[in-house]
């Protein structure tokens, strides 16, 4: 049994599809309101902040994939993510279940230094501190031998379907709707964006590779990074029309955040948009050389075509 904890999001859904396609048909989908993707899927309703519910969700699983996402709300993150992580670790330890944790980069410093699996945690905001806390909680449990686990870390998303990110909502979703895209902070710095189906496929592969456990992996991105100006140029080629854009300076988010909650919630993430964002996934590429990474051109084409 392979169990997806947080099965309703874009990562969880694509993960379930890849597990079914490549590794197993014995899949359990867990969320507050799970829905089947395949006829054979087992559904379990669970609130992972409840230790008994987390234990029921994990029981009988060979591998559990923790892919839970929460709305961009710092207070909610502080209240729920650490509890969920502790409950899932305890459940996996109880039942001898391997744990694959889908992580992000919010705890990394927002500098132009390339990010590798050994980059130190230097969070500059509440959400980053929560992500550092739960990653460190799992790393400590791994080091103590409490749980056999692996961390799969991804940079900002872009992708099809239900993918949610600043890049999708401000740039590609607006282009698809025929609206003028908004570029956060700078159009001239290179971005490291991960195609959400690639993130899920890579996580399924890692979760089914025994020697991949016990460490952190950066999930694969197209190494030929583009700026927002270049990404919009690709969108122009795909749509056959000129696409003017507006750059939103940092001050827009700072001032707007005083009046519009969601703008304030993303402010701590904005330093990474001021300079080049280089997420290094070369270790994954070396270990899994046959993995086909979706290029930015292919991804933009699929979103808009």
UniProtKB/TrEMBL annotation:
InterPro entries: Epimerase_deHydtase (IPR001509), NAD(P)-bd_dom_sf (IPR036291), NAD(P)-dependent_oxidoreduct (IPR051783)
GO cellular component: cytoplasm
Domain NAD-dependent epimerase/dehydratase stretches: 4-212
A Gene Ontology molecular function term of the record: aldehyde dehydrogenase (NAD+) activity
Gene3D superfamilies: NAD(P)-binding Rossmann-like Domain
Protein name (database record): NAD-dependent epimerase
Organism of this sequence: Streptomyces violaceoruber
